[in-house]
Amino acid sequence: xxxxxxxxxxxxxxxxxxxxxxxxxxxxxxxxxxxxxxxxxxxxxxxxxxxxxxxxxxxxxxxxxxxxxxxxxxxxxxxxxxxxxxxxxxxxxxxxxxxxxxxxxxxxxxxxxxxxxxxxxxxxxxxxxxxxxxxxxxxxxxxxxxxxxxxxxxxxxxxxxxxxxxxxxxxxxxxxxxxxxxxxxxxxxxxxxxxxxxxxxxxxxxxxxxxxxxxxxxxxxxxxxxxxxxxxxxxxxxxxxxxxxxxxxxxxxxxxxxxxxxxxxxxxxxxxxxxxxxxxxxxxxxxxxxxxxxxxxxxxxxxxxxxxxxxxxxxxxxxxxxxxxxxxxxxxxxxxxxxxxxxxxxxxxxxxxxxxxxxxxxxxxxxxxxxxxxxxxxxxxxxxxxxxxxxxxxxxxxxxxxxxxxxxxxxxxxxxxxxxxxxxxxxxxxxxxxxxxxxxxxxxxxxxxxxxxxxxxxxxxxxxxxxxxxxxxxxxxxxxxxxxxxxxxxxxxxxxxxxxxxxxxxxxxxxxxxxxxxxxxxxxxxxxxxxxxxxxxxxxxxxxxxxxxxxxxxxxxxxxxxxxxxxxxxxxxxxxxxxxxxxxxxxxxxxxxxxxxxxxxxxxxxxxxxxxxxxxxxxxxxxxxxxxxxxxxxxxxxxxxxxxxxxxxxxxxxxxxxxxxxxxxxxxxxxxxxxxxxxxxxxxxxxxxxxxxxxxxxxxxxxxxxxxxxxxxxxxxxxxxxxxxxxxxxxxxxxxxxxxxxxxxxxxxxxxxxxxxxxxxxxxxxxxxxxxxxxxxxxxxxxxxxxxxxxxxxxxxxxxxxxxxxxxxxxxxxxxxxxxxxxxx
RNA sequence: GGGCAAGUGGUGGAAUGGCAUACACGUUGGACUUAAAAUCCAAUGGCUGCAAGGCCGUGUGGGUUCGACUCCCACCUUGCCCACCA
Length: 825
Hints:
Elements: H1 5-21, E1 35-40, H2 51-69, E2 73-75, E3 79-80, H3 85-94, H4 98-115, E4 126-127, H5 131-146, E5 150-160, E6 165-167, E7 172-173, E8 176-177, E9 185-194, H6 200-205, H7 215-225, E10 227-237, E11 243-248, E12 259-262, H8 269-273, H9 279-291, H10 294-297, E13 306-314, E14 321-327, E15 338-341, H11 347-356, E16 364-365, E17 386-387, H12 398-412, E18 415-421, E19 426-427, E20 429-430, E21 440-443, E22 447-450, H13 478-481, E23 482-484, E24 491-494, E25 498-499, H14 501-504, H15 508-511, H16 524-530, E26 533-539, H17 545-560, E27 569-575, E28 578-580, E29 583-584, H18 595-602, H19 604-613, E30 621-622, H20 627-645, H21 660-681, H22 685-701, H23 709-726, H24 731-740, E31 765-772, E32 775-783, H25 788-796, H26 799-805, E33 812-816, E34 820-824
Parallel strand pairs: 1-2, 1-26, 3-4, 12-14, 26-27, 28-30, 31-34
Antiparallel strand pairs: 5-6, 5-9, 7-8, 9-19, 10-11, 10-13, 10-18, 12-15, 13-14, 16-17, 20-25, 21-22, 21-24, 23-24, 28-29, 31-32, 33-34
Helix pairs in contact: 1-24, 3-4, 18-19, 19-20, 20-23, 21-22, 21-23, 22-23, 23-24
The chain binds one RNA strand of 86 nucleotides through helix 7, strand 11, strand 15, helix 11 and strand 30.
C-alpha cells in the first residue's frame, strides 16, 4: 500500500488523539521513580509558531521521548510567556483588548504545537498573564521587599522614548533598546529595583559548577557580572574637606597620575564648579554631554572631550597637587565615576592628555625600550615592567607592586583594596499596561505600603482605553488607582507601573512542578522531586538576561527555604538560528517558511526529521526546500519496508545458524542501537538519523526468499529496531508501524528503548589498512584474531607493498590492532 | 581593544591522532512508463591516464608525529558576545 499525504494526516491526527486521551505524557509525582525534567524556553504567544520554535521544541521532544522510552519519569511541560508589549501595541494600533488578543494567540499556538506531536503534559499548561500565575509574581515581589531585595530609588535610568518605558541594563544593547532598536536616553526617575547585586558572588562562583553549559554562555555571564579587583584611592580636594574616591585596577601606576577626571554626572561636580570663574562654560559642557545619546557617548571612537574645573586634588601617595577635570569618557555607572589619569600607561588618558596639554610621567619601564622618555612616546605603554619614579617602590615588577602598594595604602589609610562589579541592580518597573501590577500602595501618611498578602492578586483591570499616550494606561483608571491605605484606611493610590516580563519568566519552571496549586507559589515537595531542570533548551539570545535572572531567583528561593538546589538548569543547549538564503528568517525580511504549510505538504514527522538532520543543533541551519523531500522519502522507504517485507516468523535468531549476510545485518543493527543511543545523549541528532539511514540501506541490500524463516527473523529484528530508534524523531509513523507489527503496547514508548549486545558487535573477519610511509597502499581482509607477526609477514610479502617500498629497508613497523599497519622505510 | 566559536566537494554536513568527504541534497546516465510523476539501479573532489594506476587535496605558513581535518605556534577570513570598564 502506498503512503500518501492523506495517510500521514490521518495517522498523525490519530496518534495525537491517542496520546491525548490515554495521557501518555502525563507526569505524576512518584518519588520511587527516577525523574527527568525536559524544558524548552516557553514562547511569547505571537500567534503562529515559526521555524525557530519548531527547531527548539523538536530537540526537546526527542530528548523527552528518548528518556520516556528509557523508563525515566519525564516531566515535559509547556506554557506561554504571555505578558508583554506586542499585545499592548496591537491594542494601540487596532483597538483590540490585549487579553483577548493574547488568549486568541495562545489558542492558535496550542493547536499548532499539537500538530507537531510534541510530548507535553498539557495538564500543567500555564500562562503568565493568568491571575493565578501573576498573583505569585506579586507574592514573590513582596517577599523580596520583606528581605530588602526589592527597593525603590531615584536615579538616572535607561529610557526608551519609543516604547515609552524604562529598561534594565541587560535590555540595553549597544546603547539601544533591545526590542525596538531605538537609542536609549537617560532620565531621572523613581523606580523599583531588585538587589541582584547581593548575589553577584554566588552568581559568579556557581558558574563553575555548570559543567554541562556551553562555555560561551558561561563566559558571557562572567563577563556581564564583571568582577574586578583593585584599589579605591582617596584624593583630598584642595581647600575643601571633600574626599574624592577613584577606583583603579592599576594601582602600580599611582605615582604617574598627573590629573583626575570626573564623570559629568558625578555628585561632587556641583560643589566643585559653583562659583568658579568659568562656571557657565563648565555647565554648558555638562549639558552637552547629557544631551548625547547613550550609544554615541559609549562608542569609544569619539574624540575625548573635557574641561578643567579650576580645582586641584592631592595625590595621597606623594602629596602632589594635580588638576581635576571633567570629561565625557568617564562613566558614572562604573567604579566610582571618577578616575586617576595616568597618560603614560593608559591609552585613553594618553589621548586626552595630549589633546589638552597635560603632563606625563613614566612609572613603568618598558623592558624593550629602557631609554624611553616622555617626549618619545607615541602611545601609552600598557604592558609589564619594573617601577620607576615611584619612590620606595622603584625597581619592583609592576605585578608585585600592585599587591605591595595596595597593602601599604591600606596601612596608611589612603586607600582600600576592593572589588568592583559591572553587574547593576535590576530595574523592573515598566510604564506599561500589559504586565503584572507591582503590589504597592502610596499613602501620604504611611509612605510606601505593600499590599497585604491576603489582598493578592492586585488585579490588572480589563477593558480599559489604551492609547499609547500619556504614560502608563493604569494612571487613567480611577477604580484601579484609588485605594484605601491598608495601614490607616485613608485615601491612597496604587503603584501604576507593572513588572518587567523577565520577572515572570524567572521562575515558571518551578511553577510547572505544581501548576494548579492555588495555595502557594509552588509545592515544596513536588519542586523538590522534579527540580532541577535536567535539560533546558533555548536560544543564545537569552544567555544573559533570562538565564541570569532565573539563576538569581533560584538562589533567592533557596534562601527562603523553598528549594534546596543552587542552580535551576543542569544541562543547557543553545540551539542555532534557522536561516533562509543565508539570512535569519524574519517577517520583516519576508523570508519566512511557515511550518504549518510544510506540515500540510509532508506531515510533522518529515519536518521534525529534516530540521534535526540538516545541521547539528547548536549550528545555524539553512532551510532547504529540496532537502525536506529527502526526509519525506526516507519515511516512505520505512513505510514500504514494513508494508512489503515484514512477515511473521517463528524462528529465533541463533548466532550459530546465521550466514555471513545475516551476521552483517545483525551487527549493523546492534551498531545502530549503540550509535543512536550515544548520539541522542550528545545532541548529535543529525548523525543519529544518518545511522538509521545506513541501517535502512543495509536492509535494502539484504535479500530474503520465500520460506527463509531465519532470514525473515533477522530482517524483522532490523525492522523493529529501526522503528523503535526512529520513534523519538518521527513519533507518529513509528507508532503506526509499531502497532501494525501487532504490538500490544498503547504507545511505542512503553516498549522501552532497545539495547545492543556487545557480542553481536564483534567481527570474525576485519579489514586492515596497510600503509607505506603513512600512505594507504593495500587492504587486507583477515581474521580478527590475527597476530602482529602474521600481519607483518603478510604485509611485507605483498606485491603492492613491496612495489612502494622500492627495495628500501624497513625502519619501523607500526601496528594498530584491528585497524592498520604502517611500514616506514 | 578583549573573549569565544568556526573555516572540509556544486550544497547541508561526517570523521576517540589512523582509508578525508559517511549520510543526505543536487547533477548525470540507466531501468520501469505511450508519456510524466513516483520508485529502483549506477556514477559523482581536482588533475592525469586507454587502463591498472599515479599525483594533488580539509583557509594560509610553520611545527610535533611512523601518520594531522584533528594537537601546538603564527597569520588570514567570517560569525557571535563584551567594551572609553578605569
